[in-house]
Design goal:
binds uracil; binds the ligand O=P(O)(O)O[C@@H]1C[C@H](O)[C@@H](CO)O1; alpha/beta; about 35% helix; Rossmann fold; globular; about 300 residues
């Protein structure tokens, strides 16, 4: 497949002289030929995303090591002055924190998608490395998402635009997901599976938990809901997959969601891991995605 530069899906961008990517504090001057942005970011091939700044710092350190790009210099958060998100650049990879949930992630995603367009990146791939609640799987299992399901158990993302309900399909790139799975199976000593992912608007009631500040349903209702999810092939629940898959698909950029499960929701609601267990689990998506990136950069 020939490589291509992301075009996105907004004709107004072509008419803009400059574009200030406000939340990551990157100013794109003369956006039609932004040579400075091309020089700084034109080599980016992978944009990795995850909830927290610390995790993305750890990911950047890990990638720097396995890609043999550690020059001993301090890793710099290039968006620190934006006061919202953290962005680290490790050679051709950006590692970016997106916060909790679709609304915070979508702001960052719009700006990063525009960044790779202005920088003329060749066929960049966006990958979320997250945590999630498992549905019928052993904690620690890594789920590579096939399709995203929303809180109504529909394989779509719904967004209000100009007072109207706009519904877009929520599917991840099939080939990318299969490639990630194939690579993972060849080197991971833990379970890595393909499954559908439900993205909830809320960690508590939206994910059918019994331990939120409010809950108007019974344990039997919760279990029936989780069973319904399982029957739809959903193997994990997090808070970003539908927005992430639908926006990237809509603008023609390949994306994948690789999340470790911290618990099996069929057995409870509380996340009760030790610090060491959590670190071990969070490392798993690093290894799945890191090895994939390494082999892709080597042309395998
Ligand atoms: O990448 P993270 O671990 O932030 O993803 C999940 C989904 C929510 O953002 C958050 C809820 O605890 O964790
Ligand atoms: O159960 C969980 C665990 C992590 N993240 C979620 O969104 N849900």
């Amino acid at each position: 497949m020939p490589e291509s530069i992301p075009i996105l899906k907004n004709p107004h961008l072509d008419a803009m002289e400059n574009d200030y990517l406000y939340h990551i504090n990157i100013n794109v001057v003369n956006s039609r030929s932004a040579t400075d942005i091309e020089r700084r970011f034109g080599d980016v091939k992978f944009v990795c995303l995850g909830g927290t700044k610390n995790r993305m710092f750890a990911l950047a350190k890990y990638l720097r090591h396995i890609l043999q790009l550690d020059n001993g210099e301090e890793l710099v958060d290039i968006s620190e002055s934006g006061n919202r998100y953290a962005v680290y650049k490790v050679g051709p990879v950006l590692c970016c924190s997106h916060g909790v949930g679709m609304s915070t992630m979508s702001v960052l995603l719009h700006e990063l998608l525009k960044l790779v367009r202005y920088a003329k990146c060749q066929d960049p791939v966006f990958i979320r490395l997250g945590t999630s609640g498992g549905v019928g799987v052993t904690p620690g299992t890594v789920v590579i998402s096939k399709d995203g399901y929303n809180g109504y158990l529909r394989n779509e993302h719904e967004v209000a635009i100009l007072g109207k309900r706009v519904v877009r399909p929520a599917n991840f790139d099939e080939k990318l997901a299969n490639d990630l799975l194939r690579h993972a199976k060849s080197h991971c000593g833990y379970d890595v599976i393909m499954g559908n992912t439900m993205a909830a608007e809320c960690f508590y009631e939206g994910q059918g938990r019994l331990d939120g500040a409010s809950c108007d349903y019974s344990e039997a209702d919760k279990m029936a809901f989780l069973q319904q999810l399982y029957e739809k092939g959903v193997r994990n629940i997090e808070m970003e997959a539908t927005m992430f898959s639908s926006l990237t698909k809509h603008v023609g950029v390949r994306a994948a969601d690789v999340c470790v499960t911290l618990l099996n929701r069929l057995h409870g609601d509380q996340v009760n891991l030790t610090k060491e267990q959590k670190e071990d689990f969070e490392q798993r998506p690093f290894s799945v995605v890191g090895e994939y990136i390494k082999s892709s950069l080597c042309g395998n």
